[in-house]
Protein: Beta-lactamase-related domain-containing protein
Amino acid sequence: MKAAVFLKWLSELVAVSYAAQIPLTSNSSLTTGIKTENLKDGAAEFKCFITPQFSALVNLTLEATKTPGLSLGIVQVVSHTNDVQTEFGTWGTMSGDGDEMMQETMFDIGSCSKAFLATAMGILMEDYAQGKNVTPLPDGLGSFAWKTKVQDLFPGDDSEWKLKDDWASQKVNIRDMLTHVSGLPRHDLSYGPSDALIDLVRKLRYLRPQFELREQ
Ligand SMILES: *[C@@H]1O[C@H](CO)[C@@H](O)[C@H](O)[C@H]1NC(C)=O
Ligand SMILES: *[C@@H]1O[C@H](CO)[C@@H](O)[C@H](O)[C@H]1NC(C)=O
Structure:
């Protein structure tokens, strides 16, 4: 990665963690570490990314962006041998009292869940495509893919799935939802911590869209 590109990436990462992630708790004093699993002699060679130079760069970036702390995990996998190396690094502080950031410091997940969701969906689709997952799909649905319509996943007249806009309700597919082109704005006040998953789905029909499906 070129230095300028990397710096841009890092400062975005820092901006995200500063804006959206609130450290919660931690209980160990490990701050950096490298762990290698499954590695037979000479089977794979991993490069360490968290070098002293890298750490110095992170320090400078935290200072320049007035970010209190940052923690970073890097996972390297050799696909044909399944060798895994994880590296962890932490910098700065995790609380107003100046407690050090640690490997076990927990953060609110914030929008990182979006990436996990998209990845989990992709893995599930791949499992269906390769016949590893044989859980029956709803009647009439031959495959589960990005273009699968949500309505086909929740079929029937008494389906929980319904949007205020009928056209969108029928046509929205998985890709539309993950790329945020369903037409629905955030409606942040429409849900709360006590809601079950199904409550969130059932409320969708009452939420006013801001755009037509795929308009923006
Ligand atoms: C840290 O937390 C883990 C998981 O909650 C727990 O198993 C462990 O005993 C804790 N360690 C200390 C030193 O409190
Ligand atoms: C980064 O900053 C911390 C805290 O000031 C310091 O302990 C550490 O040595 C610095 N690391 C590098 C590589 O400069």
